[in-house]
Amino acid sequence: MKAKSATVDAAADAALMVPVTTIAHVLDMTTRRVQQLVAEDVLPKEERGRYPLIPVVRAYIAHLKATPEIPVGNLDPAQERARKDRALAISAEIKNDIATGRVVLIDDAIAIMTGGLSRVRNKILGLASRVAPRLVMQREAEPIRALLYDELVAILEELSVEHDVQRLAGDGAGREAA
After folding, report:
1. CA 113 to chain centre
2. What is the mean pLDDT of residues 134-162?
3. Cβ pair 156, 168 in contact under 8 A
4. In this structure, how many other beta carbons lie within 10 angstroms of the beta carbon of residue 45?
5. At a CB cut-off of 8 Å and minimum separation 6, what does 118 contact?
6. pTM, entire model
7. Strand (E) positions, the chain?
8. Which string of b and e fits 21-40 if b means at least 16 CB within 10 Å?
C-alpha cells in the first residue's frame, strides 16, 4: 500500500505546475534568481515557463542545507587579527631569509644560470677552433681522443675555478662579468 501511496504523492507533486513568478514568490527571490538556479541545475524545470512546485521547494531546501550561509559582517575580530599576524610573520620570515641569503630570488637564479650556461656554451663551441689545427695531421683515433679529453678537462677546470671565485666573492660580483 505504501508503494501506491508514494506513486500517488509523486503524481500529485508533479501535477502542481506553477509559473516562475509563483516560484519566486514562494521562495522569496526574484524570477531572475529562480532562472539562475535552474540554469545551475539546483531547481528542476519540466515545461517551458512552468515548474513543479513541491519538487522545486524540496530542491531549494536541500540546496540551502548543502551550502551553509556565512552571515555578512559577523567576522570574529580575534580570528581576523590572528590571520593578519600570521601573514605578517610569514612575510617577515621571507624578508629575513632573503636578507640572510637563505633564499634566492628567481630573477637572480635565472641570471646566474644563464650566465654560467652561456660561458659553458661558449667554451665548448670554441673547442673545435682551438683543437682543429692540432688534429689535422693525426691519423690515429687515440691521440685525437686524448687531445679532446684533455681540452674538455681543461675547460671544466677553468669553469670550476671561475665558479669558486664567484662563490667566494659572495656579493654577486661574478654576475657582472657574465
Report:
1. 24
2. 87
3. no
4. 19
5. 178
6. 0.37
7. 17-19, 50-52
8. ebbbeebeeeeeebeebbee
